[in-house]
Amino acid sequence: MLDKGRISSVQLMLVLFMVEMATAFLLVPSIVAQAAGPDSWLSVLGVATAYGLAVALICVALGKRFPFQVFTEYLPEVLGRVPGKLLAAAYTVVFIHLTSVVVGENSIFIHTVFLRETPPLIINLMMVGAAVYGVYLGVEVLARANEMVFPIFILSITILLALVAREIDLDHLRPVLANGPLPVLKGAMVPAAWRGEVFFLLLLYPYLNQKNEALKSAAGTVLMSGVFAATVTAVTIGVFSDLVASRQIYPVLNLARYISVAGILERLELYLIIIWMAGVIIKLAVFYHSCSVMAASTLGLKDYRVTVFPIALATIVISGRLYETDYLKLVEFLSKFWPFYGYTVELLIPGLILLVAVIRKKGGNRVDF
Amino acid sequence: MFKLFLTILRRINGRKTKIKEGAQSHWETTFETERRPISSSLEKNKAIVKEIFDRCDDLVIREIIISRKSPVRALVVYLDPMVNPDLLQHNLLRALLNVDEAPSNGITIAWLKEKVIPAGDIQEKKRWVEVGNGIAKGLVGIFVEGQGSVLLTSIFEDVSRSISQPTAEPLIRGPADAFNEDLRTNIALLRKRLHTTRLAVENLEIGELSKTAASLVYLKGYVTDELIHEVKERIQRIKIDGAHAGGYHEEFLQDNPYSLFNPIEPTERPDKLYGHLLEGAVGLMFENTPFAIIFPVTLPSQIQSPEDYYNHYWFASFIRLFRWAGFFFAIFLPSFYIAITTYHQELVPTPLLISIIASREGVPFPGFLEALLMELAFELLTEAGVRLPRAFGQTISIVGGIVIGQAAVNASLVSPILVIVVALTAVATYTIPSITLSNTVRMLRFPFMIAAAFMGLFGVVAGSMLLIFHLCSLRSFGVPYLSPLAPLSMGDLKDTFIRAPAWMMIMRPRLTGYVEPQRQPRGQKPRPPAPEGNRSLRWGRKK
């Protein structure tokens, strides 16, 4: 194990929730609304959750077989040395790319909405710097820091939604399933990939101190984020209607702009960005931690910390080259490629690995905890 | 950046030790004479004492003759300022001079120790090192002709001040006694509160040259042996010449030596130490300092004041919430001001924004410089207030209040809103009951102001995340510094942001008090007496 930290099952649940929701709550509603229309909340709540649960099940089953190793550490054991190492390397690269997507999401958001004249590089350096510091301190610190951030995150968004609740027009959400189930399924493509980030369980499993509660944590995360994301989506569409919501880049941000309480509490979008930043720093830290652990285990290093800095630099450069400040490029990736990319990485390959492990009888089946 | 800083620090450190490596540190060598055995000849001993205490003019060597029947010559050796002359004359010397009987085998040290000397603390020593150190500590040494050992007894002059009120941590409702510079008094103050054999007082020594006495106090069975072991090990690892009063030795005890935060809490209040002991913490008291230090300690417990437990719980909770707000204000208020005036004007309601802008109209500086100036001025004032002799106190308050406040505004150096912000920050800083925490907060303000000047609230948020990461990584003797919050233990939240009623405080804090988790039995919630029964005090029956 590359990190000596220990996290509890509740901490794991909250970390996974943050990994899924820190960016999703802002980006998903508009993308879903394009495909699913008024029924967006159904695709977020139902279909995506079902997919997330499937990922969680596979990950927990795989984790139980190799309780003290991260995903990339046992790949060579399952697949044989060369293919295993190759796949591990591929995973590292894929996750470095995914991390740079998160970096891009963040800098594009802050750049387009708030700091118009600040180069995205500066924003990235700031955010990545904070996250990297967390990574250096280890997974235990990340989990604890998340425990501080999580209540603020949930509470703030709940309050924001509550303050805007009087603008909801229920007609925007009715009739339910007007166009049949197909748009709901189509709409679920993107949020499902997001929900599949519960895959990070495989990279956090060794640190869990109550391993028998892994499934509870994972399922809890998926359900909790399902309810949360569905609420955000439903309120967004309830306020803006699906047509308007799907044509906005950040409908949730506009939701915050809608709030006006007694003429004093106005322009609350800044609070939204504070929450977003705190969440994204946690998310980035978990991503960097996982990436560097993957890289270190693939390369056979003793300490994962040496890989953090190069990976952080790489992600900043990659996100700068791929997306610059172009939201359209990013959203094209998110809505067209990311689902398939995500399904492969999160569900398909781990599922196959599990199958191979079962067939080749690798890993302990009954580990007593 | 940080790493670089660390390497530089290490370089500096390393070079210093290299220079010292060649030479034996001077305190480890004893005098040549101190290695000799104690002789049975009184004259020789006298010469050696004189040699050891060379150029110590406060040394008194009193030659006496013990016993009238079979006279034996003896020496009473002591350092004059350290010994109480009345007790010396009336108790020790009188007892020695008036010995009537003598045992058949002549007068021996053991006999004197058992029969003659009227003192509680008496030791027989055979080595010069011990004897020399004992006399240097203020003990009285008794040498007897023909005996190869020395009696050491204590008749200390009381050189400490009397017990006075706490100056750094005053309270309204609560005991008003404070520790002073005398270790014995301090332990007595603690023993007075805890009449139990469970209170352990372990004596230690810090400082190779000063040999400062220290006492480790804790409740046996409430603290894990590992913690005690760890504490003792860390204390024994300290090799310094003198243990300065205050935080000097604390720096050897920290888990995270480079952190701004110091998870060791000094206190001059016996009741605070007492409260922490009951929660499974350990106290370390030193001679010559009125501050005992407590560990492990957490950030939430540094926001608690002993007064929270003396006041009614509603009020205590109310005040504690304010103190938490004060903690956040003290860190973030100036940076918020900077962020809002420079970047996020839209956050402020329009009428207020207009008045802020109007008040800043004549001010030539950007918000950051303005705030920085005022904060620096405030820190200077605070420091001057601490350093100034009493007589100048008035001057400072006039200069501070009028010149810095009023005149700076009139001269349009700063805006009046900023004066409010700085004043509020200052007040908030001193609502934090812990001295170390409020000092840390005073320093933390400035990095956040810089972050706000660069990136507005974004910088502040990134900085806060760094702060959260750092705080989460800190430990105080193994206990996470943010402990009831992260890692979260729900049960302990009863005494974090609020203070639950005393009858609900059933469990001790989870991470420090887990050896004896239960503090008191359940079901002590007071309720009015049952309606039936003659002795009922209900209002219906009172008449």
UniProtKB/TrEMBL annotation, chain A:
Membrane topology is: Multi-pass membrane protein
Q: Does the keyword Transmembrane apply?
A: yes
Residue span of the signal peptide, if any?
Answer: none
Pfam families referenced in this protein's UniProt entry, alphabetically: Spore_permease (PF03845)
Q: Does the keyword Transport apply?
A: yes
Superkingdom to which the source organism belongs: Bacteria
Give the UniProt entry's GO cellular component terms. Answer: membrane
Compartments in which it is found: Membrane
The record, for InterPro entries, names:
Spore_GerAB
Question: Any stretches that span the bilayer, and where are they?
Answer: 12-35, 41-63, 122-142, 149-168, 188-208, 220-240, 270-291, 303-320, 340-359
Instruction: Kindly list the biological process annotations in GO that this record carries.
Output: spore germination
Query: What keyword terms does UniProt attach to this protein?
Result: Germination, Membrane, Transmembrane, Transmembrane helix, Transport
Give the family from UniProt. Belongs to the amino acid-polyamine-organocation (APC) superfamily. Spore germination protein (SGP) (TC 2.A.3.9) family.
What is the designated name of this protein? Spore germination protein YndE
Task: Write the lineage as a comma-separated list.
Answer: Bacteria, Bacillati, Bacillota, Clostridia, Eubacteriales
Automatic annotation (TrEMBL), chain B:
Residues spanning the membrane: 321-343, 413-432, 444-469
Any one GO CC term of the record:
membrane
The record's InterPro entries line, in alphabetical order, gives: Spore_Ger (IPR004995), UPF0353/GerABKA_families (IPR050768)
Which parts of the sequence are annotated with region: Disordered? 516-543
Give GO BP annotations, semicolon-separated: spore germination
Sorted keywords for this record are: Membrane, Transmembrane, Transmembrane helix
PANTHER family in the record, alphabetically? LEUCINE ZIPPER PROTEIN 4, SPORE GERMINATION PROTEIN
**To which protein family does this belong?**
Belongs to the GerABKA family.
Q: What is this protein called?
A: Spore germination protein A1
Q: Which organism is it from?
A: Pelotomaculum propionicicum
Gene from which the chain derives? gerAA_1
